[in-house]
Amino acid sequence: MRKKLVGLAMILAGANVFAGEILMGTTTSLDDTGFLTEVSKVLKEEKGVDLKWIAKGTGEALELGKRGDVDILFTHDPGREEKFIQDGFGIKRYPLMYNYFVVVTNGERDLSNYPKDLNEVLKKISTENLTFISRGDKSGTHSKELSMWKTSGVDKNFKNYKEAGLGMGKTLNLTSELQAFTLSDSGTFLKVKDNFNLQEVTLNEKEPLKNIYSILELSNVQASKKDDIKVFIEFMNSDKATEIMKNFGKAEFGTPLFFVGK
């Protein structure tokens, strides 16, 4: 009997003790691009952890974290993320990857005479009352868009400034339908631009439009989830996850949808 118990203990010790499930609050862009589908597949294969997620704007995702409705967050609004931690809702922020925000419009629009300066583009949109579709959903993209108008000193309260209250993919679809402008993360834009017949407004400076994605470790989580959360964080900082980030979208678009770093 003793031998059987020892054998069973050895089997259990060799099993994947982290084989559980975690629920993540995240942004629509990480869902729309298919990035999380790829991550979850490899995470399950490599570590046995089943990753589920709720895709919302970053503002709503942070609220899920505050209420304890999710086990971890993956968002893209550094200012609000840092405040989230300062307010005691999070333990640590892990910046992992980035892409860029881009101003986009319908594919038929002639952009040959458009300025290359972001502030001048916004001024042209406002002055000429061109339709601009705002996410209007307190997402990371919406937050960045509002800061752009403020920094530029351009009044966004013109007649054809519209708030969609939608995720990124649906906002881009609406932008195409209304032959409008919007702000998008470059990953989602590349994923859907051909289907929606959209084009990027070329600008002379990208760095101010850098879009950083970070994992937020939460302060209050169920004890039963802590090991699985630890495995997920370690996996996302591993060489395997780095390879996913470096290569995701590269074969299809000629460039990765995300870049490693911060």
Task: Please give the structural blueprint.
Blueprint: H1 2-14, E1 21-27, H2 28-32, H3 35-47, E2 50-56, H4 58-67, E3 72-75, H5 78-86, E4 90-106, H6 118-127, E5 132-134, H7 140-152, E6 161-163, H8 168-177, E7 181-185, H9 186-196, E8 198-200, E9 210-218, H10 226-236, H11 239-247, H12 250-253, E10 259-260
Parallel strand pairs: 1-2, 1-3, 5-6, 5-7
Antiparallel strand pairs: 3-9, 4-7, 4-8, 4-9, 4-10
Helix pairs in contact: 6-7, 8-9
Concise overview:
45% of the residues lie in helices and 23% in strands. It is of the alpha/beta class and 262 residues long.
The CATH class of the largest domain turns out to be Alpha Beta
CATH topology of the largest domain: D-Maltodextrin-Binding Protein, domain 2
- Measured by DSSP, the beta-strand proportion falls in 15-25%
Structural class: alpha/beta
The amount of helix comes to 40-55%
